[in-house]
Batch of 2 targets.
Target 1
Amino acid sequence: LSAPGGVSLVVPQPNINATVAQNILLSVEYSCRGVATIEWKHVSSWGTTKIVEWKSGNYVNISTFYKDRVTTFENGSIQLLNVGMRDAGYYFVTVTEEYGTNTYGTIIVNVYEIIYEDLHFVAVLFAFLAAVSAILICFMWLCNKSLHLFQKKTTHKLTASTTEEIELETIEC
């Protein structure tokens, strides 16, 4: 991108995909004959925010919201530390030459969350199934014990009644 006044700007990576808490480099490279002023803005659904403005080899003015999160570089690039979901959007860089000529560049940043909910769901489901299995095993053990006790009582009664019949038969003869 070359403007008539001799300002040129190159954006080597116009799309950046990042995950939450990652550091990203918004890389550009400009050249001009005189002293340039570089300005970065962020535009998203939350609005437009001026990030930083500086004059090459001179002052750097970083907005309060980005104070501890932005590093500027002489070639016009900035590094954004610890990105969050609110950092997704369009980043516009403007390079203005001291004679008033300027050029623009745009970088689109997509920020993705690392989804742990699926893993969490699987862990909870596994714990639930393990608990249900343990309860069923205990229930089956109790049923088995009850059945053995019931069979012992029934066998004992049968033995007693058979003995009585034998005794009764013996007496009748």
Note: The chain has a mean pLDDT of 87.
Target 2
Amino acid sequence: PSRKFHGNNRLLTFQIISHYESINQGKKELPEYFNFASDVLDEWAQLEKDGRKPANPAFWWVNDKGEEVKWSFEELGSLSRKAANVLSEACGLQRGDRVVAVLPRVPEWWLLNVACMRAGIVFMPGTSQLTAKDISYRLQASKAKCIVTDDTLAPAVESVLPGSQFLKSKLLVGQGSRDGWLNLKELL
């Protein structure tokens, strides 16, 4: 049995299928460049804003304690633009640069994922179960210029940073602060 989380999904599903069928039939041009954040997320936000699509959460996260984070399409779009600015300005990243994220699945994980799409930065997720050796290998092999982690994982990450010659910036997700780390929440 399937549940509907967002009301009537048939209309939106039909529109998506119809759009791709028209591309396949040569009625619409395939875009040269596609960016999910601006071409889909921002478009849905505008449809909601114009009243052409019912308001639904774009993101809804609940942890094991029952705490929730719920963002509309407009909020996720706005937050992802701010996060993209943090990555490009405060962290000094450019299109094509790589970011290693060693985070549990907290809302910032998804926010950074969309921000990287928006800015053309390559997002490389890593599980919070990675060892220091795993993190070191990923940093070196990818030539990542930024690493993102949280307060609890930062000590393991810091233990391998001296051998990371490509790393430009370190971004911390959470309430705390650490020497040499930028804090995402403060920068947003």
Note: The chain is about 45% helix and 20% strand.
